[in-house]
Amino acid sequence: AQSVTQPDIHITVSEGASLELRCNYSYGATPYLFWYVQSPGQGLQLLLKYFSGDTLVQGIKGFEAEFKRSQSSFNLRKPSVHWSDAAEYFCAVGAGNNNDMRFGAGTRLTVKP
Amino acid sequence: NAGVMQNPRHLVRRRGQEARLRCSPMKGHSHVYWYRQLPEEGLKFMVYLQKENIIDESGMPKERFSAEFPKEGPSILRIQQVVRGDSAAYFCASSPGQGTHYSPLHFGNGTRLTVT
After folding, report:
1. What is the DSSP string of B43-61?
2. What chain B residue is nearest to A39 in terms of C-alpha separation?
């Protein structure tokens, strides 16, 4: 069965600094990969997804993620963080259907002024 | 356009009572998914329903938990005889269809259940 690990529980960055959130997955075939963001008291919003093709995917709000099969990783990046990016970020891996999707434990991002 | 609506936002129950969580999917969506979120554990899939059918309940605890999605009205997640360990945020998501690839999931804002 597929699974995903987010090694960092909490990350703090300064506003304007670059950001990279780590995600490692485990799945025997080509995975479907997702990043979601959750603001406090809100549901999850899809940032970006990878199904196939170009391994660098662009998402909303200036985020991008790169699929690296050799490292089983799908790290999320942003070149310059804004205070409004403070939230919890979830990586998810799927096998082909929504009910197969498995979420990581999340990384909480704090942005310092 | 109304998104996925969950109510109540907050629910407090004493041990042994019943909790009913409601979810109205986005207009035009016929697939509903329920997830439970515990602190520092991410979202755990519970159940996937279509109208009047449970498609996948592999994530549902075997006892006390049930879900339905009737022909008319919202989807209901029901927890009988709640215990403190049921305290969590419960999220509902909907999608327009399953298909051979992922249909985008739209999440509600969740119901935060507290068992005292």
Report:
1. EEEEEEEETTEEEE-TTS-
2. B109
- Name the residue among B41, B58, B102 with its Cβ closest to that of A98: B102
Q: Could you tell me how many CB contacts below 8 A there are between chain A and chain B?
A: 63
- The residue ranges of DSSP E strands in chain A, in sequence order, are 3-5, 10-14, 19-21, 24-26, 32-38, 44-50, 56-58, 64-68, 73-78, 87-94, 102-103, 107-112
Using the structure block, give the residue that is written with the tokens 């249909």: B103
CA closest to A98 among chain B residues: B102
Task: Note down pLDDT in tens along chain B; length 116 residues.
Answer: 579 999 999 999 999 999 999 999 998 888 999 999 987 778 899 999 998 899 999 999 999 999 999 999 999 999 999 999 999 999 999 988 664 456 778 899 999 999 99
Which residues, including other chains, have CB under 8 Å from residue A12's CB and lie 6 or more apart? Answer: A109, A110, A111, A112
Residues of A in CB contact (< 8 Å) with B are 6, 9, 32, 41-46, 49, 51, 90, 94, 96-99, 101-106
Q: Contact A97/B102, CB-based, under 8 Å?
A: yes
